[in-house]
Design goal:
Layout (H helix, E strand, L loop, with lengths): L3 E7 L3 H13 L5 E7 L5 H8 L4 E5 L4 H11 L5 E6 L2 E3 L5 H9 L3 E10 L14 E3 L5 E3 L2 E2 L2 E2 L10 E2 L7 E5 H6 L12 H11 L3 E12 L10 H18 L2 H25 L2 H31 L11 H7 L5 H6 L2
Parallel strand pairs: 1-2, 1-4, 2-3, 6-13
Antiparallel strand pairs: 4-12, 5-13, 6-12, 7-8, 9-10, 11-13
Length: 338
């Protein structure tokens, strides 16, 4: 049996399966490809039965989201490594070997990602992960190659193997034992930032994460929920608050949570003036639901602290200030001018 499984979570993505599954089959001889269907109502299963009858398929009767879908699927699997791969990703030759070799050689590494470029503009980094993710001291995520909406052109400037704060869930290589030991994804997140939360827990457990740019994939992005959808705004803002609440040191939470809520209200006002008040309302709803989740999040953080062996440190600056006020819009510029 192969030691690596490629686990593709699908929800009404028949068009992506038709477009991208052939490249996954072609360039993944070292692994077993497993399709997990999240109660699709389109022709996904019909397409798979007709075109890939030998492919292993796990079918759920309800949509468990990204978090629940992967948790349930991985709990059924017994591979050393699982590659969590979005259905809207085009892989390239030799995309698996460099990362698995690196993880074989470094047993303290819990997860890795490849370099992620934009499928529609292949010379640019893609929003979800780029060349590895980081967090500022308020939990704002950014990447080598992407800060907020600024995407850099790939000129091989981030072609070094790099330790990172989080690895993208769009193409996430995980050591299965570490994934299970960390408790998998938080299903209350449903989708968005769940991989950042998981990676923060990995780091608190003394594990590390890397981007291995010898492997490259191309991501369409927004295939299930694009950025103009207020639902995505809601999930991002709610989950970012839960991320802080669960993982940040308690002494820091007393000032970071009020500060973060204030920043969110400023973002809600900007959304209202620039785009749509629907996004502003999504942020308000995110705050309300975060308050309702507080008892659960407090219980979760107690469990996390029990297993913590490492003090996690994020980048010591406020990303919105550096980006919007100082005008530092690339990763190199940001880190050379702290």
């Amino acid at each position: 049996m192969a030691k690596t499984a490629i686990v593709i979570l699908n929800y009404n993505g028949a068009q992506f399966l038709e477009q991208f599954l052939p490249s996954v089959i072609q360039y993944s001889k070292e692994a077993e490809v497993i399709l997990v269907d999240n109660a699709s109502t389109d022709e996904s299963l019909l397409f798979l039965r007709k075109n890939y009858p030998a492919l292993r398929v796990i079918v759920f009767e309800e949509n468990l989201g990204y978090t629940g879908g992967y948790n349930e699927a991985i709990n059924k699997l017994d591979y050393e490594y699982c590659i969590l791969l979005n259905s809207d990703i085009e892989v390239t030759p030799n995309w698996i070997v460099p990362i698995i070799n690196f993880m074989d050689e470094h047993p303290a590494v819990a997860a890795c990602q490849p370099k992620v470029l934009d499928f529609n503009q292949k010379q640019y980094f893609e929003y979800a992960g780029a060349a590895g993710g980081y967090l500022d001291f308020m939990g704002f995520p950014y990447c080598r190659g992407r800060i907020f909406e600024t995407l850099e052109e790939d000129q091989n400037q981030y072609n070094t193997i790099q330790k990172v704060d989080w690895a993208t869930g769009a193409c996430l290589f995980v050591r299965t034992a570490d994934f299970k030991a960390a408790g998998g994804f938080d299903t209350d997140f449903f989708a968005h930032m769940e991989e950042i939360d998981l990676c923060w827990r990995f780091r608190s457990m003394g594990k590390s994460l890397y981007c291995i740019p010898d492997s490259t994939v191309y991501h369409v992005g927004g295939g299930t929920l694009n950025k103009i959808n207020p639902r995505k705004t809601y999930l991002n803002f709610r989950n970012n608050l839960s991320l802080l609440c669960k993982n940040e040191r308690v002494i820091s939470l007393f000032w970071k949570l009020p500060f973060k809520l204030t920043l969110d209200w400023a973002a809600a006002l900007k959304f209202g003036m620039d785009q749509s008040w629907n996004h502003s309302w999504a942020i308000c709803k995110a705050h309300l639901d975060f308050i309702l989740l507080l008892p659960k999040n407090i219980r979760k953080r107690r469990i996390i602290r029990k297993h913590a062996v490492n003090k996690v440190r994020n980048s010591p600056f406020l990303l919105p200030y550096q980006y919007f006020v100082k005008g530092r819009k690339t990763f190199d510029n940001l880190h050379q001018n702290k």
